[in-house]
Amino acid sequence: MKFLLIASNRDPASKNIAKCIREEFGVDVFEVEKELLSITSDDLETAHYYIFLSKHRSKAGKPSLTVHTPGNLTENNEFGGNPKEVCPSDAILNTLLLKNIYNTYVEFHKLGKIGNFDVSFEVVHHSPTDLKAPTVFVEIGSTEKEWRLKEAGEVIAKSVLDTIEMIKSKNYDKKIKAVGFGGGHYAPKFTKLALSGDYYFSYLIPKYCSVDEDVLTQLFEKTDVDIALIDWKGCKGEDKKRYVKFFEKEGIKWEKI
């Protein structure tokens, strides 16, 4: 089982995390000279899982540690990749990463080693889109200060390696695996459900993206899940109708939350 950890030498957060992984844990990182969002499948070795070590940028500039599957949910491919294409996603990988990042961050914070950070999922967005194995981004946000903070790099590094060990040894609980629809970019409802231990989440689809049937089909062909969960108040009425119609046509179990 091969996990490829990918870092860009043009990304300060990526370099920070990669340095911690190499120097503190003695694990190899696959380094590239281009931006992570410029990568395609041709740039990478074949692996069972791809974990991108990355920076996160936001207008608010709030310190954050995030997890998400990459892909383009609509025709908009402003941030690279192919329109209406998503990478495969693994609900267990994504959620164990989120929980390990949260738990490690809390431990560091209690010891006074790191300041206040938000820990959350993000919804599906940006490239790459054409990889053939489950892919996830783990990110430090949201400014140059946080990207270069050694302790933030250590939190991500430890959490990534703990997650890999858990998956290799199958040391995790059996839970419901889900795709989540609705809510904002940081998926607060699904983040809370994941951290409370109720579900594993793969793709998260925000209210601001109305995905068509081609993309809906990918969301259930490129992941292994048990159910679709709809944030009923956090989803547009016309989208809810289309999604439910698709789920029922395809025999996909779904619930409101």
UniProtKB/TrEMBL annotation:
- Whether Zinc counts among this entry's keywords is yes
Q: Which UniProt keywords apply?
A: Hydrolase, Metal-binding, Zinc
Enzyme class, top EC level, equals hydrolase
Q: Which HAMAP family match?
A: Deacylase_DtdA
Q: Which family does it belong to?
A: Belongs to the DtdA deacylase family.
PANTHER family with a match to the protein in the record = D-AMINOACYL-TRNA DEACYLASE (PTHR34667)
Q: Quaternary structure per UniProt?
A: Monomer.
Summarize the protein's role: D-aminoacyl-tRNA deacylase with broad substrate specificity. By recycling D-aminoacyl-tRNA to D-amino acids and free tRNA molecules, this enzyme counteracts the toxicity associated with the formation of D-aminoacyl-tRNA entities in vivo.
Tell me the protein's name.
Answer: D-aminoacyl-tRNA deacylase
Organism from which the protein derives:
Methanocaldococcus vulcanius (strain ATCC 700851 / DSM 12094 / M7) (Methanococcus vulcanius)
